Amino acid sequence: CFKNKDVEHMNFLKLKLKRKFDLALAKHATMTALLNDVWWEQLVGLHLPLRFRLSAVKPFIDLYASQIENLRAMNQAIVLERYETLHELFMKAVQKEVYIVQLHATRLLDEISTQVHQGTTELDLKESARVEKHMESLLTHFQATQNRIYKRHAPTPKQVEANIPLNLFVFSLQSYCSTLLEFQSAFNAKTHTTSKRMVKFIASTLQTFVDKAKYPRDKMEMAAKVWFAILAACFFSVYSFGYASTTANAVAYVMGNHIVGGVIAGSIIPSICLFYICSYACGNSILVAISTYSLLFVWVTVSMYIKWKGGFESYAGLISAFTATQVLLKGCDGCEKGS
């Protein structure tokens, strides 16, 4: 943008940058979606022939997203700029150094991209020192230039305020460069070996089982009540009601109503589906069995592994799957009894 000296060119640049930002955001969304689809490749060894490591590419995509935000801040500075008298004086003094910083920052980003795409697990960036050196030089020169211009021209508060966008641009550029400089240490600190990552994941997962923060008092009390209710339900179902599922169903309903739900999802829709299955396939026991078992498989899978696959709502998936199982495993009892 420092090559364009008139307002007309800058307005054209603003429109061009807006389109580039839209394309960059779309590209980031596409890369993130693709990354979510290939999480399994490293587990089966495909990263060796493909030279692709999820642990290496994900930080690079995160860097890409961070730099978009830094560039947005610089773009916002360009949008806010009003090209007052002080702006021209500052640009004559720091234009060349800003260009040099941008040049070396672009080279550093290209170097990061090249090494990541080559599948490296430890970055060794040659351009980092140059970026850091020129950025420090720019900040020092910018501060000295500001002091010199303010002393010579004695600007009014309005003129100083009009120069804020330029300050925003410079410090956004500093943030852009700092993000690039910090990337190497953060990248090299990550574990990229598959076996070590698996061990680390298992260890962190096991550690969550003994993490006190995961067991607040209210959840412990609720878990104790539910545990006692299920234990009592199993006892009464077996020894008092002749292996009936009535008590267990009651526990599921009560638990669902008090915690997260899932009863309606597991009872209403499967019951309607079972009604139509029994209405049209009552005379064919094989067709009834295939239909009900297929529906049961789909419903349990969706409830526990897709719709409510994690977090607190996983209890709703469990209750939905349990209730649907009670409904569908009965099959078409009326067909066997002739009713």
Briefly say what this structure is.
The protein has 339 residues and is mainly alpha-helical. It is built from 14 helices and no strands.
What's the structural blueprint in terms of helices and strands?
Layout: H1 7-37, H2 47-50, H3 54-80, H4 85-117, H5 128-153, H6 157-162, H7 164-188, H8 194-208, H9 217-239, H10 246-258, H11 263-280, H12 285-307, H13 314-328, H14 333-337
Features:
single chain; 339 residues; mainly alpha; 78% helix; transmembrane
In sequence order, what are the helices and strands, one letter per element?
HHHHHHHHHHHHHH
Q: Give the count of structural domains.
A: 2
| Low-pLDDT ranges | none
Q: How many runs of DSSP E, i.e. beta strands? A: 0
Q: Give the % helix.
A: over 70%
Keywords: Membrane, Transmembrane, Transmembrane helix
Task: Tell me about this structure.
This protein has about 350 residues and is an all-alpha fold. It has two domains: about 5-205, no CATH class; about 215-335, no CATH class. Helix content is about 80%, strand content about 0%. It has 14 helices and no strands. Helix 3 (about 55-80) runs antiparallel to helix 7 (about 165-190). The radius of gyration is 32 Å and the shape is elongated. The termini are far apart. The model has no long low-confidence stretch (mean pLDDT about 80).
